[in-house]
Write a structure and sequence with these properties.
The protein is α+β, with helices and mostly antiparallel strands. The protein contains three helices and eight strands; from the N terminus they run ααββββαββββ. Strands 1, 2, 3, 4, 5, 6, 7 and 8 form an eight-stranded mixed sheet that branches.
Length: 194
């Protein structure tokens, strides 16, 4: 069961909850590739993740994500190479377009939402997006989070292929995404991706 959002009235109460369960949050936001405790609080409040306590008493972050394999006419996949966070820190990604799913959200709807949110700055208002539902697969994995050092994360991974017209088909590009703390820049590259 997930810890209720009201258990975390602010960043301090979330940090305390994690600390009481053996997680040191001092590196959050300063370690390479990490996010802040405020980012974690926001994703829990928005339902993008939840925090549970395992039978052993350790905290576990649960996240459902959708990864979208967008291909061009050369068969190359669109990969988010890196992000430049609002504070200027660089986060290496080297991942397909990925989006955290909202509670009870369909993976195909989440894929479309993710495409619009992450690539929206270079797409027209109503882009042509084709989700290839017959390519859908799902898996589960658990490992340490690079975003939140020390916090083990269970990922429910949904994957689907898509075609998005109106994207630059052969050149790399950068997108801008407005966040509460500023502008997130993402560098995208076309690669052979397996």
């Amino acid at each position: 069961m997930c810890a209720a959002t009201e258990d975390f009235g602010d960043e301090d109460s979330l940090s305390q909850w994690l600390s009481e369960r053996g997680i040191d949050t001092l590196q959050y936001g300063s370690a390479e590739g990490s996010k802040t405790i405020g980012n974690l609080l926001q994703e829990v409040r928005q339902g993008e993740s939840c925090l549970v306590t395992t039978e052993e008493g350790t905290p576990l972050r649960r996240v459902a994500i959708v990864s979208v394999n967008i291909t061009n006419d050369n068969g190359e996949s669109l990969v988010e190479a890196k992000q430049i966070l609002p504070g200027g820190r660089v986060r290496e990604r080297n991942l397909l377009l990925s989006e955290k799913m909202l509670p009870d959200e369909d993976p195909f709807d989440a894929a479309i939402r993710g495409i619009r949110e992450e690539l929206g700055s270079i797409l027209p208002e109503n882009p042509e997006i084709a989700i290839l539902k017959n390519t859908y697969s799902t898996s589960m994995e658990q490992h340490a989070s690079t975003s939140y050092p020390g916090l083990c994360t269970e990922y429910i991974c949904h994957k689907v292929d898509a075609h998005v017209d109106d994207l630059p088909q052969h050149e790399n590009f950068t997108t801008e995404e407005m966040r509460p703390d500023g502008v997130l820049l993402s560098s995208w590259e076309w690669r052979v991706y397996f």
